[in-house]
Amino acid sequence: MKYFPPLICLFLLLSSCVSENPVPHKISDYQLIPIPQNIKAGAGYFQLNPTTSLTFDQQNEEIAYSANYLKDYLQNNNQIQLAQSSKSGNQISLAIDPASGPEEAYTLTITQKGILIKGASGQGLFRGTISLIQLITQQSGQENLVEVPCVHIEDAPAFSYRGMHLDVGRHFFPVSFIKKYIDLLAFYKMNRFHWHLTEDQGWRIEIKQYPKLQEIAAYRNETLIGHYSDQPHQFDGQKYGGYYTQEEVKEVVQYAKERFITIIPEIELPGHSRAALAAYPELGCTGATYDVATKWGVFLEVYCPKEETFEFLQNVLSEVMALFPSKYIHIGGDECPKEQWKNSAFCQDLIKKEGLKDEHELQSYFIKRIENFLNSKGRQIIGWDEILEGGLAPNATVMSWRGESGGIEAAKQGHDVIMTPTSHCYFDYYQSDHPDEPLAIGGFLPLEKVYGYHPIPDELNAEEAKHILGAQGNVWTEYMKTSQQVEYMAFPRALALAEVTWSGKDKKDFQGFCSRLAIHLRWLQNKGVNPANPLYDVKTTVKNSSGSIHLQFSNQAQDGIIRYKNSEMASSDDPAFTEDLTIDKSGTWTGQTFVNGEAVGKPQSIQFDWHQGAGAKLEIKNQPANKYGAGGKEALVNGVLGSNDRYGDKEWLGFEGKDFEAIIDLGKKTEVNSVVFRFYHGPGQWIYAPNKIKITLSDSDDPPNVWQEKIINKKTRKAMEVKVEVDSQEGQYLHILVPNFGIIPEGAQGAGHGAWLFVDEVRVL
Ligand code: ACM
After folding, report:
1. At what angle do helices 483-490 and 493-502 cross, to 10 degrees?
2. CA 20 to 30 Å from 324, out of 47, 258, 362, 554?
3. Reported pTM
4. Statement to judge: residues 82 and 113 lie in one domain
């Protein structure tokens, strides 16, 4: 017990008195993320001070984790050392009562006299302790005193798997950061950390039996500079790498255990294995030597399904199992090009010998052998959804990343599923369409979209839905060189996913989340975390209804005043935005949030390129995919161009394997000189600009007999424009037919799947 001067003791004694007329609280006073299932607001405060004692069963290790975490937190952040026993009766009690609900359930009762946290298990108790700590962080506090608002909370998670992933292969992060990341997951009641430990660009875990994994596979000669789509590729010329020793891994596993987080290690196979092949080329199919990859993407170099490869992998996995107690071991399984297996006499013989149909069944054979091995050691595999191709291994859990369809199929086959669709769970995508955003892989996944996710697809019946264990945010680090950048990309989107997976569909409320988020962002910043802060950033919404275009400014905080200007206005007279603006000309409009007269958050500009089709009615035959059509079909004729590199924004429409067919009604007979199309070309993201465009201007909306055709010879990466001259033709209806590129060729990312066709504004000039 610390020494306290008499005056402070007197103050503490007085302040721990129970108030006769406690102030009642509102539900909104408890700014917890994720929001609990049930909160009953109380009145008054519990005075947490150095006379407060912590009571728990010292013999119970599961309880001790929560007790130690709470003690350390208060000591380090509030300079309060909890007493062993209390004369004042002011105490915090921790207990486990298995009858009180599902495994992670807890109740937290705070009265003026005491705090009781009761977990259904050690896990539940820890989650409840986190709720208490979150409430503690939200009180301004004086030295040696925190007033914690009285409350009764009953809580349990909607999903049992609430995870975050981190790719340490593309960039490597120190143990201190891994612990910080785990702490942050724990603070938001997540319970799984998927540690992606091996990649083409680096092998990051010490395997004692194979020292060349440390000497060779852990280092690459140099790294790509800029975006993969920037041509020609340039490199930094600097050796890069590192790995975690087994001692470090043990330390991290223990650290996670004390926070009730299970670490799921991923050892990628049979693809994404070029670093391992650089160290042990005999495990490949070609007899060639390999180097550790220095740029991103999917590589043809994959493990050969030879006996010596299985022996290697089993030895590696044995060391991995000795380090990680997790029931699940992730074995990758994604993006394995079959080229080398097709050209290998050994693989072709094996296909015949095993009675397999093709290379997909060979991949399935590969995964099943690994599954057999891991099952024989009492472990289960998780694989990316490609492991469905060629037949799913009998006991596998599927991580559905290429949308939800793999997860749906697996659940229908009776397999467990973790949802991680790129559309809602890829935190390497851009989160803002602001031009100053740091370089990212592409896509567009704002906070609101993450928050809107529900991991159970409508296609599943109640029985099948039980196989959806939960969801996970993925953090691929090609474009994240530093831990600060990882933090910026992962937070606060991880907080949105924490609420999606803990609180569930019925509790969600985005506005409520945003207002609670404000205090959490401040806390994160105070803790030295570098979260993005999108709350006051201005958002623009363009509505295209009955022939006219309207512009709206807003921010997610729904706070402050947004002032706007357009390129023709003098800067001194920026009016406050109060109602939608009608747009009928080209120009740039800019909005900025002001709070108490000060600009906060990022401004947003929107440029209108007026044309004869702006605001027109249109019909489209095939619908875009739900996840890539947020602006509706009207986005094609709203006068606004989509981002050059964020095809997921509201302006782009994405058609999965389908053609783009439209009729634009110009309202009256109109003379047209040219039509300018915008397409997106990003083969790395499975997006292909089309090979041709067909158009006809006509007086009728009946399908035309004759088309004008434009062949597209040259495709440039990201957004590209194609102009079709029509030489002053007249007509009211512009018919458009843009055939999809078709099936993605072998060797490319997404090989064998229908290409995505992304279309933006169709400008009629
Ligand atoms: C993945 O993003 N390749 C699983």
Report:
1. 50
2. 362
3. 0.84
4. yes
